[in-house]
Specification:
With 529 residues, the protein is α+β, with helices and mostly antiparallel strands. The chain folds into three domains: 5-123, no CATH class; 139-154 and 343-527, Gcn5-related N-acetyltransferase (GNAT) (Aminopeptidase); 160-328, no CATH class. It is built from 23 helices and nine strands. It has helices at residues 5-14, 20-26, 31-45, 58-72, 76-85, 89-97, 101-113, 116-123, 145-153, 156-186, 198-203, 217-232, 244-248, 252-278, 281-287, 296-312, 321-334, 342-345, 366-370, 387-392, 447-464, 479-483, 485-488; strands spanning 139-142, 349-356, 396-405, 410-423, 428-437, 469-473, 492-494, 499-501, 524-527. Strands 1, 2, 3, 4, 5, 6, 7, 8 and 9 form a nine-stranded mixed beta sheet that branches. The longest helix has 31 residues, at 156-186. It is globular and about 75 Å long. The N and C termini lie far apart (66 Å).
Amino acid sequence: MAQTHNERLTKLLHEKICDEQTLDILANGDAFVEAQVTCVYDLAERQEFEDGPSQPSAQDLGERLIFLEEYMQQPEHIRSQISSYLSDERRFAVFQLSPQAALYGELLLAKSRGTLDNFRSEYTPNARPQNPFQYGKTLCLPFTDEHKAKHLEAKSLLIEKLDAVLEQAKARLFGSLDEYVSELFSSMPDDSMPEIDEDLFEDMRDTELPDNSYPYDEMIKHTREFSMLCSHAQCSLPENILVQETWEAMNIKEKEGYYLDVIRRLAADVKEKASGEFVAQSEYYLSNDRDPFFSNEIKRITELSTNIAEVVGNDLEILTGTELIEIDNIKYQMREYGHMSEKIKKAKTLTYSLELSDKDPLDVTYGNESGSCILISPNDLSNGYGLPHMIADNATYIFNIYQSINTGKKRRVGIVLAFDTVSDSGKRVLACNSLELSAAMNPIPLVPEIVDYVESGLVEFAKANGFDEVKMSAHDYNTSKNHSSRHSSGNVNFIIEKIKKVCRVHEPSFYSEILDESGQLQGEFYSLN
């Protein structure tokens, strides 16, 4: 039997997700409040308090109910305005799905009251307010038939991104395997070899080793593990591995050396087989409109990583959550390739401009229009789970890259995500996470000029707003890094000095390739000035 509104609230009270005051106020809620209470109740009932930044905690749900309490206390015209804002399906998705739903509600409330600037100043009190900025130069590029042909043929940008993600996964997989083999070698016995236990031979019958295999007891565990691993990797064990006659003719050191050689060969074979699945499959996926992650090849690599994790005894992720989202994003852009936007096909000239976004809470399509992984869809937030914080935080900058086709209206076709950071020496650094460009709206042959234009605009912004330096991330699937003349000049370095984002107390999680959990910059960067 379905629960009533009051019964749901009572259950949430018992679960300590709300208090009695909140219950009393929400008991008289309108249809919007009832729907949101049902959503919170369903999440709490299923106990979906999973680990991970994109999952709501019990505290997040409680804060959502507190926001609804505040909503109920607003004048009718404010409540009506909030409901109107949330009639857009993508905004509603942010409010419904983000663990920062309460914060997004507060942003909408501040907008309806005209108090956004004050809200942001209180939200991150140690960050400087963001002043409007429009780069004083525009970039006008001719767009010829030759450009159009090259764009339709060019898939290198997505291939580079996909291969970079897979290369990282491969390095993680093989690094773990190499570390395991190295530890195995260093732990081998130095003096005496144990007596062979005849019962072990029978134990080996249940493994995937050939019947004539006969390892000694100190090594049986590793051999059995590797046999399982090799089976999954479709690798063949040497025909004479640990054959009894061969084994008995060896002295202790020869046996140790022979065994370690077998393990080396098996590890190399695993790596070779796995490499074959990683290499340049992306070209095939793109040309055949295949989903890169759910392909059989990538699935098999993922299964292989699970088995290696069992062997090496650690929690090995072949693809991290961020990488999976990046692959999903590439898949999203793949659909845009192969058919250039009809708008672009009619272009003779493309004019670009750069502005600092005012981060209007109603604007949640940064990722959708730029092809970045903070895109919002009605049923999935991807890496957009932290968008409410990014909109509220004065230390997070989003630059809009606009394009006008011929003499038409400008539209957003890219973004730059950046952060206000400070070094130990007191330098204020504009740290840029990435430059993202829509694959369908930005012809590949023109991308290098667009990137250089945007990077110059970022330098001008920094000069006008008190920054000492501008750094751009050099991670492999950053469009800016892949096409920048500044990057190609070789001015790339690791962060040595500690540089940290200006943070609020108890800062929530949000998407970034360049910040660790404490807000410290990490990775390689190149300087724009």
